[in-house]
Structures are given as structure tokens and as C-alpha cells.
Amino acid sequence: MDTSHLKNKLEAELQKLEGELTSIGERNPSNPADWEAIAPDMNIPAADPNEVADSIEEYETRSGELKELEIRYNEVKGALERLEKGTYGICRIGGEPIEPERLEANPAATTCMKHLENPK
Ligand SMILES: [Zn+2]
Fold this sequence. Notes:
Strand content: 5-15%
Number of domains: 2
Pfam families: zf-dskA_traR
Order of helices and strands: HEEHHH
Number of strands: 2
InterPro entries: Znf_DskA_TraR
Strand order of the largest sheet: 1-2
Oligomer: single chain
Distance between the termini: 27 Å
GO molecular function: zinc ion binding
Shape: elongated
Largest sheet: 2 strands, antiparallel
Structural class: mainly alpha
Radius of gyration: 19 Å
Domain Zinc finger DksA/TraR C4-type: 86-113
Bound molecules: zinc ion
Keywords: Metal-binding, Zinc, Zinc-finger
């Protein structure tokens, strides 16, 4: 299977995700696969509890978005690693080749369509 255009897609997505991640989070220095939301700005004049609450709420929203981005980022990164190792496009459950159309739709897929529906 020719995977070069899938590799391009994955690399473009990885770059985009990295940009989004760095805009709302920072990489954990001791674990590059882990990202943390940028801490809320607590240098607000203490007298305004509303602003503090807003800031905490914003931080929680950011943490949630970051988590989703991080999951996708690691999926894409894993797919690129499998391309390097030559194990790309193999279902991680049954070991059979993943349908090319599934990889077109999601180049970071780790299961074939059958096991997507029945992840047991
Ligand atoms: Zn499978």
C-alpha cells in the first residue's frame, strides 16, 4: 500500500495539533507526550472573586480542550511511529490490514472497521 500521502496528512495534522496545543498548554518537561493547560492567571487583585471564578472556569475549559487535543496528538504521533517501523495499517486487535478507505478517512486509525464496531 502506498502510504506517502497518508504520511503527509498525518504530518500536517501533527503540526496543526502542536500549534493548537502550544496556544493553550505547555509540554510537560519530564514527559513530552504529556501536555498541561497553562495555569490560570491568579495575579488578579484579590478583591474580585468573579474574575477569579472566570479565570478558573477558563482554565477548566482549556484543560478539557487540551485533553482532547492531546489524545488526538498522541494518536497521530503513534501512526507516524508505526509508519517508521513498518507496522502501519495493521489492526491492533485482529492483526489484519486496515481497509484503505478507513485510513483515508482517519489516517491515525488503529483498528479495522470490524473491530471499530466491536472493540473487544
Ligand atoms: Zn480488526
